[in-house]
Design goal:
By secondary structure, the protein is an alpha/beta fold. It is 45% helix and 18% strand.
């Protein structure tokens, strides 16, 4: 089966350009749906990489679209109070009528991200445990039954309403390529979200996470394997390379060579892109989320034209 294709809205880029207006972003979401994309995604950050609030923006995108899945790539649950988050996500799932996917992660260990956690009053070094407990509490509240919780966030006979549109709440895809993240995804969540640049390594990790899913007695047919890639499509390969390198350095304030060792990227002509994406598809990717290094309208059209070649 061909993989589903998703598109990441350029929320961070627009804020960096001094163009925070949301109308054009929502137009891109609607355009992606009209071109046959399967999902639309937004990133998350409070202060480290300023951008629009993902849940608020996705609520607006839900009102502008009808079919596409709407997801976070990726959200940082540890920065939020889970009772509030459970309520927000349940409402968003109702607005979208069950189209929400929560891509979640723990964030990289970088000075600006540590500062972001400190500003939110959240201990950075305890973020994994905080995330895991918070998501368990969300899922408990999403049942609509009374919840009694004695841990970081004490809850006494708490009942959430409304519950999500989908029974049990939106699927959660766990991001990360380190061993602990792979194990968390396979044992506890509905999908695995990776940015691994090496196809060989990605295939090995997918095999590992699938084995973990089986050993946990979970249904592998309901588990999603997703890859997130950054693209610069241009028939002039040198120009594409220049564009993607400039994009990454501006976005992360780090050398492009460092970022490209950590994240899956492609720069070059459309024909080569088809082979690049097909490699992940054949390796077992069930969902491919793309981010464009500039020029989103043109590149959306180009990628839409390649859909038939994937599978």
């Amino acid at each position: 089966m061909p993989p589903q294709i998703g598109y990441l809205l350029p929320t961070r880029e627009r804020v960096m350009e001094g163009r925070p207006e949301t109308g054009s972003l929502l137009d891109l979401a609607a355009r992606a749906e009209s071109l046959g994309f399967d999902s639309v995604w937004v990133g998350d950050s409070l202060l480290a990489r300023p951008r629009h609030d993902p849940l608020t923006l996705l609520a607006a995108a839900a009102a502008r679209t009808q079919k596409v899945m709407l997801g976070t790539a990726v959200f940082l649950p540890a920065l939020r109070i889970p009772v509030v988050l459970a309520h927000q996500l349940a409402t968003l799932d109702q607005i979208s009528e069950g189209r929400l996917v929560l891509g979640a992660g723990i964030a990289n260990d970088l000075p600006n991200i540590r500062a972001e956690f400190a500003a939110a009053g959240v201990p950075f070094d305890g973020r994994v445990g905080r995330m895991m407990e918070g998501l368990r509490l969300c899922r408990a509240l999403w049942t609509g039954k009374p919840v009694n919780w004695e841990a970081r966030w004490p809850v006494q006979d708490g009942m959430l309403a409304p519950t999500p549109y989908r029974p049990g709440g939106p699927p959660i895809w766990m991001a990360g390529s380190v061993q602990a993240a792979v194990e968390r995804a396979g044992k506890y969540f509905d999908g695995w979200f990776s940015i691994e640049p090496s196809l060989v390594r990605w295939r090995e990790q997918l095999s590992q996470v699938q084995q973990i899913v089986r050993e946990a007695g979970r249904d592998l047919g309901k588990f999603t394997a997703a890859i997130y890639v950054t693209l610069a499509i241009d028939e002039d390969e040198a120009r594409a390379e220049q564009r993607i390198n400039a994009f990454l350095e501006n976005y992360y304030a780090q050398p492009a060579s460092v970022i490209r060792r950590r994240q899956a990227c492609y720069a070059g002509p459309a024909a080569g892109l088809a082979d690049f994406l097909e490699g992940y598809a054949k390796a077992g990717a069930s969902h491919i989320i793309v981010r464009f290094a500039g020029d989103p309208e043109r590149q959306l059209d180009l990628l839409a034209g390649l859909r038939a070649q994937l599978g």
